[in-house]
Structures are given as structure tokens and as C-alpha cells.
Amino acid sequence: xxxxxxxxxxxxxxxxxxxxxxxxxxxxxxxxxxxxxxxxxxxxxxxxxxxxxxxxxxxxxxxxxxxxxxxxxxxxxxxxxxxxxxxxxxxxxxxxxxxxxxxxxxxxxxxxxxxxxxxxxxxxxxxxxxxxxxxxxxxxxxxxxxxxxxxxxxxxxxxxxxxxxxxxxxxxxxxxxxxxxxxxxxxxxxxxxxxxxxxxxxxxxxxxxxxxxxxxxxxxxxxxxxxxxxxxxxxxxxxxxxxxxxxxxxxxxxxxxxxxxxxxxxxxxxxxxxxxxxxxxxxxxxxxxxxxxxxxxxxxxxxxxxxxxxxxxxxxxxxxxxxxxxxxxxxxxxxxxxxxxxxxxxxxxxxxxxxxxxxxxxxxxxxxxxxxxxxxxxxxxxxxxxxxxxxxxxxxxxxxxxxxxxxxxxxxxxxxxxxxxxxxxxxxxxxxxxxxxxxxxxxxxxxxxxx
Length: 451
Hints:
Layout: H1 4-11, H2 18-23, E1 27-32, E2 43-47, E3 50-56, E4 62-66, E5 80-82, E6 85-87, E7 94-95, E8 101-103, E9 121-127, E10 130-134, E11 158-166, H3 170-177, H4 183-186, E12 208-213, E13 217-225, E14 231-239, E15 243-244, E16 253-260, E17 266-273, H5 328-333, H6 342-351, H7 369-388, E18 406-410, H8 416-424
Antiparallel strand pairs: 1-10, 2-3, 3-4, 4-9, 5-6, 6-7, 7-8, 9-10, 11-17, 12-13, 13-14, 14-15, 14-18, 15-16, 16-17
């Protein structure tokens, strides 16, 4: 349980708040790289409560600038992206990617007014198919973009499989990612003998948790002991400020990203990769919907373009106003929710907590160890930055982000961190070998179930 003050500190991300200032120490995933074309139409986005335009100039340089022209307050969204800058459609004032006014055609040639004017502009960078923005204080010399392995492997070895907007605070989504014991319920089928398309079935629903702080956040292992003396480990990472890795399999390593749009909306990116092998399937999110419940990754369908708002193409049709397409017959007979998509099962429960969860009223147990530790780390880091300027974990060290997760059966006497460490930190590309067979623990898991 948190105090009201702690909950507000954790959740509020606008400029001037402790968590908002912490977020601005990091590069933030903003759009897909292909969404911004050179000299193309600017895109409306919102990050950390700030409305911006994302665009790419003639030379392909990404830019993130304020939406309103400083002249008379007209929207630069309606301007022309041309010849190395964004020109306001009202009076022709033009701004480059650094925010400099480079042309003021309605002023006389003798005027030097344009040299005195600059708009808000943030650095952009492309990495791993995503265009990132740095909204922090050091625009002249920002830190490096986090060097996730998925951004370093060839394109054929990664997939961006999901993207949509959550109508809730970012922390609710992050906490769902770090909660290992909800999977047998929220993503599970009711009976072992039912079709795995309705979810996984886990015999042992209780786990022992081992959590260790790291320079980038934390690593934790959830151990489920088996009758044969072995242990099934689901081991993963939380990376500052909003990255969660649910456990990998031998075929892929997943990552979930929860970027705060503002205090009440969150942008989710879901992706996966393999260090040495090509991945099958679409490289970018596509609409996925079934006539019947059949658990899948992906976003589900999206609403038609919501013109006039931020991220107009990424609002999910599976949402509170449609009850997330919950099928009551399926819910009654086959699985816990009747919601046909894993990610939207998560979203339904996290959105149901309200725009910002009131954590002063919750009651946490031992299974919430990772959630509790993550909150403490975030709050402590935000306070340290505010009080004495201490850079938050990982913000100055992009190389720390090259980590992986794992799910594997180990012998009862194996140390999980020692055994999994070489895979975790990229010292080997050989997936850790299982000590036994998991059939005593998990029976007929759904092949696409991501947790």
C-alpha cells in the first residue's frame, strides 16, 4: 500500500513533477520509423502530457516540435513540411528540426526578427524500427539511445507485433507486466482437457519470488517447484523507466513498452526478437480478430482513424465501451474472461482499476514482491533526481539495456542467477537447457500465450 503522496509521485508525469522529470532523462519510443516520411505530413503525438508534432525533414532527420506557431498560435500540423523545415500555413514562418526560425516571409528583408525566435524542439533518433525522442535537459549532448539487442539484430530477427493505447495510467500497465501469478487465471483456460486455444493450464499456481536490484532496474525469478524435485523458473527484468520483459522461450525474447502519454493514457509497444534466428510472421502490427476466442498476440482491431487527436491510428476497438469483445459463453464454459486477445485481457483488468489506481486501498501479498520492489525503486530514483540531481538507473548507460529473459526448468540445486546469467546478459546465444520436462507443471499451454 502506498500513501496518496507516493501514489501521485509515482503516476504523475507532466513537466515539473518528480516522475515526469525522471522520464525526461531517458529516450522515449515515440512512433514507428516508417510513420514519418521525409517532407511528409507531421503527426500529432502526446508524450508526458506535452502535445507535439513528429515529422522528418528533407534529409530524413526526425524532429519533435511544439504544435503551435509562436506568431499567432496557429497549428503547425496544417503547415508544409518542405525544403528542410516546417512552414506555418498562416503566414509562412518556417522552423527547422532544432526549432530555429529560418524564414519569416511576411517580414521585410531588413528584419532580423527570425534570428530572435525559437520554438520548443526535442532531439529525435531512429533505432530498431522506432523513432525515439529525448525530452530531457541536455538537448545539445543527450545520452545514447538504449542499446536493446532487438535494435542491433538484423530486421528479419525482430517483430513489432502489437501497438495500442491504454486508457489508464502507465504504472498500472507496467505492474501488470511484472505480475507473474496472474497468468494462470487471466490468461488461463478452466480445465486441463479443454482446447489450448482458450489459454494455458497451470497446475501449480503458487510461486516463490527472488528479486535483485540491478544497475538498470531489477531482475526477478518466479520459482514453481515440481513434484520431481526440479523447479520451473520464469525469470525476467524490469528496466527503467517503463520496460518489462515477460519470460522468453527458446524461439523468441519478448519486450513490452509502456510509454506515458499523460497521466491517463499510455502507449503500448510489443515486440520480440531472437539473437541468431529469423522470426516468422508480420514485421509490424496487423489487425487480429477471430470469430471465436483463440488466444493470440497482437493488438486486435483498431478503431477508424481518430482525426484531430494524438496517435489517431492506434486506438483499439477492443476497449471499455465494447467490454473488450467479451464472449459470455466462452467465459462461462472455457476460460476466465471470454476476451479473445491476450494483450486485451491485460488491458481490460488494468483499465478497470480506473484512470489512476488508488493504491492507498489495495492489500498486497507475497506474490506482489516484484511490484512492490519496482515501485520503491521508481519512487526512490525520482526523489534522488529531484533532491540532489542523481541520474536515474540506466539513463546514462545505454549499454545496460542489452538483456534477455528466460523460462526454463532447472534442477532443484541449481542457482538460477548463476545458471541463467550468461543467457541473460548475452554472454552466450545458447538457450539454457532444461533439467527436466515441464509436463508435471504445465499441460498443453497455448502456443501463443505470451506469459
